[in-house]
Amino acid sequence: MSSPSENPYGTPSTDGPEPIRGYQNVVNTIVRGLLKVPGLSKGVGKRLLTLHVVGRKSGQVYDVPVAYTRHNGDLLIGTGMRPWVKNLRGKVPVKVSMGGAAKEMLADVLEDEKSVMVCYEVIAADNKANAKFNGIGFHSDGTPNKADIYQTWQQGGVIVRLTPLA
């Protein structure tokens, strides 16, 4: 395994994922509200969903709006190791709202280098705004920069994979 300063893919083109801003809670509150409005939720939520994450200690439900990408029947979410992600340990069922009634899906947190590299490449190619937020730039041919993806993984980037329950 490489040391944190080594990047086998070369020099990243970014400084890594954007930090969470102090106003993010306000933005999340507004987005959560818009995602609940019939009609608006389809447009606003084209690439967003709300995860209803249950705190493993508190039992409190946290509604977390996140960007997602569809891939091979699953939904992929690229994110840093945020507090809400820690509640998704051990392939747990989680409720997901996507402009309608909440559905239960199985959440799995992928942290290993290979999974993060492969999935972030899929996510970045699908959603350039999400890629930018996660510190992933692009080569002149439009492909995601693997050095940036590796850097995102080094800095705590993970993938939440949501799989529909049978």
Automatic annotation (TrEMBL):
InterPro entries: F420H2_quin_Rdtase, Split_barrel_FMN-bd
MF term (GO), any: oxidoreductase activity
Superkingdom field: Bacteria
Ranges of compositional bias, category Polar residues: 1-14
Region (Disordered): 1-21
Descriptive protein name: Nitroreductase family deazaflavin-dependent oxidoreductase
Organism of this sequence: Nocardia uniformis
